[in-house]
Amino acid sequence: MGRRCITDAAGSIVPVAGATATEWRLAMKKALFGIGQLAMVLLFTGLLPGRAYAWPPGPTHRSNHVPNVGRLASGEQPLGDMWTFYCPDGGTVVASVDTKDDTDLGTSTLDPILELIDPDGNEIANGDDDIACTYAPVCGFRCPAFRAPCGSSAGVHSLIVRDFGASLCNGGGGYELTVDVFDADGNELSPDSIGVGGGASRGVPWWAVDEGKAPVGPALDDENVPLRSPAATKAPLPPPVPGLPRLP
Known about the structure:
Jelly Rolls
């Protein structure tokens, strides 16, 4: 007769004289179940390498390039990029644009602005010269950022990234867009759930289609984008005050 085995309170197999085949199989099943539970704990706490999901999920990043648009004529639509994303009822979006090294000298040739558009095509927030850029624009301006409610309508919102225009940054340039969305309770939404678009199935909002945009196709990349912020002129900014915090 073989040795009997039982599982103790910790789930370990302890040999006992006289174990039957049935008792041995039962002990093995309990042990394997315990191992499975441990693997699940490791998976979701980040202790299993290469298999953990970060929480909170963190913001979404998108990079691209936009041209200089010069001084816009009356009614002219500027060239730029439009990124779509989902925002829930009562949600909040935190968005910013940073510059790239366009000159290989640590400076940018882009003066970026950022606009937030609701599902009906209305501008509900915009940013310009709000925070310091990683690579200072050669025209002396700064980068856009804002934290804004998405309004009472859940659905597809849009972010427009473009060059300001006539600001002595004449080459356009690269940028990095950062988007973070929170629900009405302040919970950060995952990148998958907000779905920042700009790819082949971008799903252009109806109001943009009415303004002449193709409903499907490549990203709104250097295409005419809806003009919402009124034209403005700029005076050179004073030097930044040391020690001011950047937006998250």
